[in-house]
Backbone:
């Protein structure tokens, strides 16, 4: 009986110490965490508040020593639950996070709730490669279903659907004000996933399929311009893939 009481007292002591640390720690504690998790491609700046409840702005790299800061201010709140900690993230304008992002942390899993987010396509430049070469701009909207990640296996527990819409896409290498709008939809599962790219509006039409195996993503498709737009889009098509007549074959 004494050992049980001692064990319970020790657990409560650790819990109180942890909560005290979380409540009293400043919001700046998030900055090195975000920097490390994103390999310094995204930073949290202009932060206020505490580790448990605060706000800041998201900055992302668009080139060597060049950063872009999102205008929306992001707010976060961490609340203890019966099973772990719940993180809720939203922004004041409800534009970046159309619906609040909720994440539940337990000793076994990380569970992300259903959500919807809208952000500038320039944010994709953090991945480098073709997205940075083309210097794309426009708006992107992402919708996803609930997903649970096991902390024991680092794998997704069950398949989940997602949909990404890229609206009013533009590139600095194209003289046209708009290239078009596109939709990416697919499913991610424990070991792999698949997705499809379709064109909503032109004049640049992109179609194709891709697969994700582990951390490797492969995409095969084709791109072509509307009739009469070939000359204006030829430079962009040559950057995107190997030309065969009017069609650029895409292999990434």
Residues:
């Amino acid at each position: 009986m004494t050992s049980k009481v001692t064990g319970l007292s020790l657990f409560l002591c650790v819990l109180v110490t942890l909560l005290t640390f979380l409540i009293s720690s400043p919001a700046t504690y998030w900055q090195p965490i975000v920097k490390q998790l994103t390999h310094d491609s995204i930073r949290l700046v202009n932060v206020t508040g505490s580790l448990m409840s605060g706000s800041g702005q998201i900055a992302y790299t668009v080139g060597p020593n060049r950063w872009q800061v999102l205008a929306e201010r992001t707010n976060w709140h961490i609340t203890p639950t019966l099973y772990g900690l719940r993180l809720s993230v939203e922004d004041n304008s409800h534009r970046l996070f159309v619906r609040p992002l909720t994440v539940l942390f337990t000793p076994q899993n990380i569970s992300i709730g259903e959500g919807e987010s809208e952000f500038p396509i320039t944010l994709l430049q953090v991945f480098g490669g073709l997205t940075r070469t083309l210097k794309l701009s426009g708006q992107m909207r992402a919708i996803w279903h609930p997903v649970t990640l096991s902390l024991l296996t680092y794998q997704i527990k069950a398949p989940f659907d997602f949909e990404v819409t890229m609206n009013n896409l533009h590139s600095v290498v194209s003289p046209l004000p708009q290239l078009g709008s596109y939709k990416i939809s697919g499913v991610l599962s424990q070991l792999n996933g698949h997705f499809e790219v379709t064109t909503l509006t032109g004049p640049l039409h992109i179609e194709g399929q891709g697969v994700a195996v582990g951390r490797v993503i492969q995409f095969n498709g084709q791109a072509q311009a509307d009739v009469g737009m070939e000359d204006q889009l030829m430079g962009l098509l040559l950057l995107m893939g190997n030309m065969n007549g009017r069609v650029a074959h895409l292999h990434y």
Notes: The first strand starts at residue 42 and ends at 49. The chain is about 20% helix and 50% strand. Residues 2-24 form the longest helix (23 residues).
